[in-house]
Write a structure and sequence with these properties.
Low-confidence stretches: 2-8
Structural class: alpha+beta
Radius of gyration: 22 Å
Strand content: 15-25%
Number of domains: 2
Distance between the termini: 77 Å
Number of strands: 8
CATH superfamily of the largest domain: Recombination protein O, C-terminal domain
CATH topology of the largest domain: de novo design (two linked rop proteins)
CATH class of the largest domain: Mainly Alpha
CATH architecture of the largest domain: Up-down Bundle
Largest sheet: 5 strands, mixed, barrel
Strand order of the largest sheet: 1-2-3-5-4
């Protein structure tokens, strides 16, 4: 077998991609299986061999939520990471519990709502930009709600916020209900179409429309109190759980960790 043939075969097996690490699972004594999201290949799993050894050159580049440039070799079941270089390690997430919890939720949501190997470059860009904003200290609540709504739009699950999904009439400026099952807001006259729909205040509806129409920058200028935050988060969370067909646990874990933080020493 000629050297040229071997070289060509090796080149055909190797490929480069940028990626964000969505999740990872220890495998064997020193390996790790990673779930990646990439601009051109969507979501898929790879194996990083020896990455858990203290002297591994790959390990520092493959932390949770790291944005990295990878060289991969095609394998029979899982492609293999052969080299890695950090583009943005999102280091600030590790020292900010709120930012870390919301980043975990973003990664979990993208993982749950996408199929393997489906290209969606805009979703990659959305995740990368949202994590960057978390690292810069922007309000995690607003950044995450923007991410959730933008992701549903990209993936074809956007909730209807302007027209009643029951009677198709324009939504009035009054309390209305968000129906995960029907895919959007129900006016008062159509509430009976979904007993599981949850009422949303006028301010909650306005906040969602600002995110949808005007984007993140405008939403960050709004004054959002804790009651309104809980209302919007719970409503969108119910909608996303319906789409994902399972519970989303990252924010639940974040709340538990936050609530059990020791009180500051008053002495």
């Amino acid at each position: 077998m000629s050297e040229n043939y071997l070289s060509t075969t090796l080149q055909e097996r190797l490929y480069r991609t940028e990626a964000i690490v969505l999740g990872r699972t220890d495998y064997g004594e020193a390996d790790r299986i990673l779930t990646l999201y990439t601009p051109k290949f969507g979501k898929f799993r790879v194996i990083a061999k020896g990455v858990r050894r203290p002297n591994s050159r790959l390990g520092p580049h493959l932390e949770y939520f790291s944005r990295c440039q990878l060289l991969l070799a095609r394998g029979r079941e899982l492609d293999v990471v052969t080299s890695a270089e950090t583009v943005d390690g999102h280091i600030a997430l590790r020292s900010n519990l709120d930012a870390l919890g919301h980043a975990s939720h973003m990664a979990e949501l993208l993982n749950r709502l996408t199929e393997d190997r489906q290209e969606q470059e805009a979703a990659f860009d959305l995740l990368a930009q949202s994590m960057k904003l978390l690292c810069e200290g922007l309000d995690p609540f607003v950044v995450t709600r923007h991410y959730e709504l933008a992701l549903t739009k990209l993936l074809g699950y956007r909730p209807e916020l302007y027209t009643c999904v029951g009677c198709q009439r324009p939504i009035e400026a009054e309390p209305n209900a968000l129906s995960p099952r029907l895919g959007g807001l129900l006016c008062r006259n159509c509430l009976g179409l979904d007993a599981g729909a949850r009422m949303l205040s006028v301010n909650a509806q306005k906040f969602l429309r600002v995110l949808d129409r005007n984007g993140l920058a405008q939403a960050l200028r709004l004054q959002v109190n804790e009651v309104l935050k809980r209302e919007v988060e719970f409503a969108l969370g119910s909608y996303l759980r319906h789409i994902a067909e399972r519970d989303l646990t990252s924010l639940q874990i974040w709340r538990q960790l936050r609530d059990f933080q020791p009180a500051p020493n008053s002495d």
